[in-house]
Design a protein that fits this description.
Order of helices and strands: EHEHEHEHEHEHEHEEEH
Number of strands: 10
Number of helices: 8
Helix content: 25-40%
Distance between the termini: 11 Å
Length: 250
């Protein structure tokens, strides 16, 4: 039987170490979580692998935006999967959709062939599918190990009804992992309402203030809604409290 598990969603060395010390069972290593996450660098992976010791699943996502990929993007993702397999990653976190909002099983098979025997998590592309229960069946047929989902809502607490339905549909054939907006104050509630006992969280609190003294606030390096003078990273104690709650389930 699967045991309660908490996965740290991290996009930096500092966050990875905080989640590791805070009791994570596994990491999902990403870059650029402010835009939903993209593929991290091999160098970051090797740093975390060297110093953390936990299983690391790597997000494979070439860009911000939808999950409808071109042939060059698929080729890029295949190359990244092979690279991280060679580096010893535990698994990869992938997803691809058709224009009609179904799981793109052809692209998924190509990506999974590159992964070999690595663990496969279907990421929150699942939350953008037209029919979530049909997507569960497609993921099971493909041989995915885990589905990461917010229950097709803005956060997992809001998506409890769909999470419950998805968990029941899965019936132990595939792990359903609740993610997005998972906090210490809603973990028990999500579990009680859905049955889900595998969780995915950043373990963040308030952003850290930048160490910059001189600041040019009128210039933006990216999305104008984001500031260059806040740093978001995992808080060790916050993650530890989440981990203790998850590990006490069942």
């Amino acid at each position: 039987m699967n045991l309660p598990l908490i996965e740290g969603c991290v996009d930096s060395y500092a966050s990875s170490m905080a989640a590791c010390r805070g009791g994570a069972d596994r990491l999902e290593l990403c870059a650029n979580l402010a835009i939903g996450g993209t593929t991290p660098s091999a160098s970051l992976f090797q740093q975390v692998q060297r110093d953390c010791g936990l299983p690391i699943n790597v997000l494979i996502r070439p860009r911000f935006g939808d999950f409808l990929y071109t042939e060059p993007e698929i080729e890029e993702m295949c190359g990244e999967i092979r690279r991280f397999r060679e580096l010893g990653a535990n698994g990869v976190v992938i997803g691809a959709l058709t224009p009609e909002g179904e799981l793109d099983t052809g692209t998924m098979r190509r990506l999974m062939d590159c992964a070999g025997n690595m663990d496969i998590t279907l990421h929150r592309a699942f939350d953008m599918t037209r029919e979530p229960l049909a997507a569960v069946e497609a993921a099971v047929r493909l041989g995915c190990r885990t589905i990461l989902t917010s229950g097709q809502a803005r956060d997992a607490a809001s998506g409890r009804d769909v999470l419950k339905a998805v968990f029941q549909q899965a019936a132990g054939r595939i792990t359903i992992m609740a993610g997005c907006g998972v906090k210490k104050w809603n973990i028990r509630e999500i579990y009680n309402d859905t049955g889900v006992f595998t969780f995915h969280t950043t373990g963040r609190k308030a952003p850290l203030d930048s160490g910059m003294v001189y600041r040019k606030a009128e210039v933006s390096m990216g999305l104008p809604s984001l500031t260059e003078y806040e740093i978001w990273q995992t808080d060790e104690e916050e993650f530890r409290e989440c981990a203790e709650l998850v590990h006490a389930l069942l």
